[in-house]
Specification:
Layout (H helix, E strand, L loop, with lengths): L1 H20 L5 H13 L8 H28 L4 H17 L3 H17 L4 H37 L1
């Protein structure tokens, strides 16, 4: 049974890293699950303290994932309408499918800005680009976190 935990843990770590790039899998929670599975194997010792701390950070990263596009929309000159549009786009994107989490905030910020000021196409485009950059920053944070979880996984085995 212990070897099964080790194999499933390694698969989860790899799937978590892939999930950071492809919007099909929630990368950080899947990678964290890999660390948890390794904990239950006899091949490595991972403390409960490390698991709890990494779980809290993983939850914070998941929350950050939803706020980053809205924050970046604001930083790129988006108004409240653009920020609300990006937030609505994030929620709508969850129902659209895997690519909806990318397209939703981008389209939402653009549409929100265009509704608020129809003649301000440049500002709407900047807000939409900001939303996309926020998504890319969030993806980078997720990827760094999953690689760090993978490092702990390997370190515990060595």
């Amino acid at each position: 049974m212990s070897i099964l935990f080790l194999i499933l843990g390694a698969i989860a770590i790899l799937a978590g890293i892939i999930g950071c790039i492809l919007p099909l899998l929630p990368g950080p929670p899947v990678a964290w699950l890999g660390l948890l599975l390794l904990h239950f194997s006899k091949y490595a010792h991972i403390s409960w303290r490390l698991l709890i701390i990494t779980a809290i950070i993983t939850i914070l990263i998941i929350l950050l994932d939803y706020f980053m596009p809205v924050w970046a929309t604001k930083k790129f000159g988006g108004t409240k309408a653009g920020q609300r549009g990006a937030a609505i786009g994030i929620i709508a994107g969850l129902f659209i499918g895997p690519w909806g989490i990318i397209i939703g905030p981008l389209a939402g910020a653009f549409i929100g800005e265009m509704i608020a000021a129809p003649k301000e196409g440049n500002r709407a485009m900047k807000a939409a680009i900001g939303s996309f950059i926020g998504f890319l920053m969030s993806m980078g944070i997720r990827l760094i976190w999953c690689v760090l979880l993978a490092w702990w996984f390997v370190k515990a085995l060595v």
